[in-house]
Write the structure tokens for this entry.
Amino acid sequence: MPTPKVLNKLNDKDRLRFRAKKGDAALAILSVLKSGPRNGYEITQEIKNRTQNVWNISTGTVYPALENLSFEGLVTDSFETQGLFQKDVWKLTSEGVKRLEKQEYDERQLWALFGVDKSGYELNPSTSGTPESLLTRETEKLLEAIELVRRNRPDLVKDLASRVLPEMTKTFYSLLAK
């Protein structure tokens, strides 16, 4: 999935074409549950919040994924009474925590596609270091993001990326002229 800035260039029809890859929903759910137990609706809302509503994940995706994760022993559920209602609340098991630790790189990359870190905070370039070290670090991040798009995203996203990169190249050449 592209970052929100890239997605804003799409019309509403193209926005509907974006789909998560297999396993992205499960990874996002595990990541959200790392911060504490939640019900399915709260998980859905947290994913939408973290992605600035770019990923319009539905409870129809979340609940089956939760059932699969439960079958794998990565999450467990219990009923909690809140007022007159009972809510099915999900939490990570120790196996779920271990799985997230093994998939930490994938988890970071999943959220980075939306321009946020694993906690949902916007990714900003670090302000520490020399200008050269900052440029090197950001160049490495850009190359990693380009490679992820090239290998893992649908043709629509690749097409968008191929339109954004020439603009970036022109910008860098204009910096050389200064």
